[in-house]
Amino acid sequence: MSIPRLLARNVEEFGSAPAFREKDLGIWQVWTWAETAAEIEALALGFLTLGAQPGDTIAILGRNRPALYWAIVAAQRVGAIPVPLYQDSVAEEIAYVLDHCEARFVVAGDQEQVDKLIDVKEQLPKLEHIVYLDPRGLRKYDHTHVTAYAKLQDAGRTAQDDLLPELRRRTDGLGADDICVMLYTSGTTGKPKGVVLSNRNIIETAKNSVEFDKLSREEEVLAYLPMAWVGDFIFSIGQAMWCGFCVNCPESEDTMMSDLREIGPTYYFAPPRVFESQLTSVMIRMEDAGKFKKWLFDRFMAVAHRVGGSILDGAPVSLGDRLKYLMGDVLVYGPLKNTLGFSRVRVGYTAGEAIGPEIFDFYRSLGINLKQLYGQTEASVFITQQRDGEVRSDTVGTPTPGVELRIDENREVFYRSPGVFVRYFKNDESTKSTKDAEGWVATGDAGFIEQGTGHLRIIDRAKDVGAMADGSLFAPKFVENKLKFYPDILEAVVFGNGRNRCCAFINIDLTAVGNWAERNNIAYSSYQELSQHPKVLDTIAEHVAAVNDSIIGDEMLSGCRIHRFLVLHKELDADDGELTRTRKVRRRIIEDKFSDLITALYDGSERVSTVTEVTYEDGRKGAIKATLEIRDVIVSPEDRIAAQ
């Protein structure tokens, strides 16, 4: 079994059903499964005219578009290995991956991506040809080694009589153990690694996860997350091909929310940062709403928080509360879900990192069946999922069908499943250190399995879990997620391993705090100026104190209360190396880059001056200077009473 064979099955069984949609110039364009297969075949024949050989690497670079998903399957049909790249990667990051995977061909979305490739072409002796999808701005380029996507398809159709037998031979020869895709890790602690996944990995995982949630051909999904991310691949290729449901691509990043509302997906996935930003948007709108509307929202959200999750899970709820919730659904929850684009969501998932319990419960209280899953690129995504009726904010569920779990003596989580990756490309040492001879994979995460329920609880990344000076547990992500529940806080980084107290960096959310400043007639000229405004620092201090209150009774994690914090003068940025392309914090880089700020947090300084290198949008480097105020925080109710 292979992805191209699933495509052929879908054409035969329901060829006239929609397979892909894309919004272009405000109009949704639709391709059936039969039309999709024809487009893929023409492109695969085009690859053959360029001399593509089995085992070659074909990279895909651009935003979510049907034609780029087709390029993935076309590469598979010729026996090549597709390698999707992050579209927002800078040229140097792209060059590393293309050089490492030895790409001969790249299919690029538009002029911006082609320009990046041309900038690094001299560093890539094995890169022979660039194929571009959107021709705008590319007419006067040297087309010796650059070809339009449509022209390559035309060349394939012209050569069909000569090349189709060879294409069919290669496609028919694909098996379950042949490579399906190579996806690069985000590189949280070092250079990204190429994760090789077979057809068996992807198809078995897709089959098991589809059966788990009873997905069908009738589902609608929105493909908007990076194509280089394993989650998008399993949803938009693996599960879509297995089920035969329709994949919808938004017109652009700017229109994503309106396109989401128009499609009304039934099956939806987003990392926590998306749900966090949507909640921030809702709260900002409520702050700007009239008194009656705000009162109505607060009143019925109180009902939702009390009984919404129980109603969703089918738990007993009094008739009076059910009637109040029904009224709230008409007046508040229904319109809000429609605004968010979640009116039809039957199954929703979040993963990638832990989501704040308050954020998670907010969406479920609206009647949205949001669940958590735990996964990795090396697992073809799925390790654990939450069953309906067993959804909790503090666990990531039970093992997905076909997955085995175990916890070692250092609390690290290990798993074994049909989705376990084949190997790391050109990195046998890392492969052996991650996957043992029996197929058990080390996740790098610390956690434990609950007795009785079998639910897995993740504490933090194993390398980040440590101990305070007094021996109490240090788990920074737990506290950071609580802080990010507040709309004012975009990102947080907590320090404390081996120390006698915890301190934190905070990034404010410019949208939320800027809206607050506008409503309160507070003028500011930059992120840096707003971040250091006394009232902003007062508000952040209140949030940190509230988080301290929420964890003081947690026997395991009470030592992680924050004593001091500062608000950073810049947003943490992937272009500056502080975040991965999936917005995961690179702690070691941050600790090194901002070591002077960390020193100031712990030496009792009230202010600290610093100079930080930044990368501008055009790739130029610069530096910004700032003087930051450091705030002490109340860490216990006793301290609060004493302060009063």
Describe what this molecule looks like in 3D:
Helix content is 41%, strand content 23%. The protein is α/β, with parallel strands linked by helices. The chain has 3 domains: 3-248, Rossmann fold (3-Layer(aba) Sandwich); 272-461, ANL, N-terminal domain (Rossmann fold, 3-Layer(aba) Sandwich); 466-643, ANL, C-terminal domain (GMP Synthetase, Chain A, domain 3), CATH 3.30.300.30. Helix 4 (91-101) packs across helix 5, helix 8 packs across helix 9 (230-243) and helix 12 packs across helix 13. The protein is globular, with a radius of gyration of 25 Å. GO terms for molecular function: long-chain fatty acid-CoA ligase activity. It holds the Pfam family AMP-binding. This is Long-chain fatty acid--CoA ligase. Keywords: Fatty acid metabolism, Ligase, Lipid metabolism.
Compute the gyration radius: what is it?
A: 25 Å
Would you identify the regions where 5 or more consecutive residues have pLDDT less than 50? none
Helix share bin: 40-55%
- What would you call the structural class? alpha/beta
Mean pLDDT across the residues is 90
Largest sheet: 5 strands, parallel
Overall body shape: globular
Number of helices: 22
Number of strands: 28
Per CATH, the architecture of the largest domain is 3-Layer(aba) Sandwich
Quickly name the level 1 CATH class of the largest domain: Alpha Beta
CATH topology value of the largest domain: Rossmann fold
Q: Work out the strand percent.
A: 15-25%
